[in-house]
Write a structure and sequence with these properties.
The complex is a heterodimer. Chain A is an alpha+beta fold. Chain A has nine helices and eleven strands. In chain A, the strands form two sheets. In chain A, strands 1-2-3-4-5-6-9-10-11 form a nine-stranded mixed barrel. Chain A has a two-stranded antiparallel ribbon with strand order 7-8. Chain A is globular, with a radius of gyration of 23 Å. About 3% of the residues of chain A have low confidence. Chain B is an alpha+beta fold. Chain B has one domain. Chain B is built from four helices and eleven strands, in the order αβαααββββββββββ. The N terminus of chain B is likely disordered. The chains are: A alpha+beta, B alpha+beta. The interface between A and B is large, with 78 and 75 residues.
Chain lengths: 302, 266
Amino acid sequence: MTHLRLLLIAILACAPLPAAAQVDFSGQWAPVYHEDNPERIPGPELGDYTGLPLNDAARLQADSWDADRISVVSSYQCRPHSSDYGMRGLGNLRVWTELDANQQLLAFHTYMPAWGSERTIWMDGRAHPPDYAEYTFQGFSTGVWEGNMLTITTTHLKTNYYRRNGVPSSDRRTVTEHWTRHSDFLTVVTVVDDPVFFTEPLVRSQNWFNDPGQSLPAFNCEYAPEVLGAQKVPNHLPGSNPYLTEFADWYGLSLDASRGGAETMYPEYRQKMAAPHSKPPDKCQRYCTCGGGFNCNVTAPR
Amino acid sequence: MRIAAGVLLVFTSLSSSSVIAQGPPQGAPGRGGGPPPTPRASAPIDLTGYWVSVISEDWRWRMVTPLKGDAASIPVTQEARKVIDAWDPAKDEAAGVQCKAYGAPAVMRMPGRAHITWQDDTTLKIELDAGTQTRLLHFGGAAAATEAPSWQGYSVAQWERPPQTPGAPPTLPIFAIRIGTRGRALEATTTNLRAGYLRKNGVPYSEKATVSEYFDYHKEPNNDEWFTVTTVVRDPQYLNGPFITSSDFKKEPDGSKYRPTPCSAR
């Protein structure tokens, strides 16, 4: 009898105690591009700043951007998506856990093949490092549970972009994420507070579906001089970019709206929105059929 | 035998502590054998109040009526493309169906404000100023067979349950515990829909469409309160697969900006 009691005690000692509510996000996740597909897959139009709470400093920097910069400036050629843009960009995702010796969750790890981005989300309650610590494209992330929701805070991010048409993000930004899993779907709400380029936090949400058949490759990128003899960083000086009205013209939008800003993101803005910059086309001419993949009908502009 | 019973008792105790963590399940007796708490009383999140949809995604497809033929981002079938190319808002106006883009599959994506209240202990009401629409989310129950299809259809709601594979057999809580025990989300499934548009420019859904929604609440470091609703539309006629979006709403202090407007086909 005494031996049986000892056995019972031993079993109970091994039995895991009820832990704080949590969800295992481990697995292969395939991104869903049913929002902003033309921007996220083929790439954004020049001068499209819609839906972003930009200030004038951000617009000035974005207006100066020239896509040739990627060819000329080698450090831009293999520049990774930062962890916040990465969730909106090419987002094929693998998630796995790291457990400590007591089988407690130490960290989530994520891998995205786009630029081979690997990230750690610490779950052991550690503090963020001091401000002078290293800044990286993936930043420093810690997570806490709020019921079934995983809330992540990321700091120490390098400068990057909110849109691949030159809209900049600063290294002063803090990113909060909320991960939820419903059925076979993963939704991640991304909240970016950027005091340098935003007038209010940017809140967006992205979706994935569980895809056990997905296998993610390694990513290879090599720097190469693509424009021999280039003597300057391609750019547009203030007021000289001739392409900034194309977006509004092609899609029948007002120019002010295309410039973004917090005011343009609220429903009442429609009451004061100016007329289209030019007469809208009778029907869609570009990116009209961008669906789940790359089947976009990119035609020449008018 | 007494030892075996003791083991079972202890494990049952461990298991039940997980149940306590998630609150009483819907339909289960309350403490002391009383009636189960109502869905309103057992709500793990408070969605009531006034909320504004902040348009940080799909701006040019939501804030303005997109150009004819623009179905970007939506996994439409070839049959749908014929409907898209034939879109004529004047015909919709003449037919009195200006609300085709304000049905349950699309209305949470509209720019506008939502006013959420409890109509009663088992019915959550979502009023939307875009198109002056009202959605009723019923906890329990099902649409009456005789009920005519409508723009908002019939929505059955439940609070999120702990994650488990549907149809899985009961498991013994030995050397494993259930995780995800405290659900926070509101789940809703909508059927009995009248055919309408996923976008104002005539991207169609049929009467066969169904909508699954997941409402999640989150509070930000600046104390702003939000909910995000993940919407999954399935339509065997006009969609190649599930159409998945998530829309973000910020809480407002009052209804001073809530302005019901009629449906518009243009």
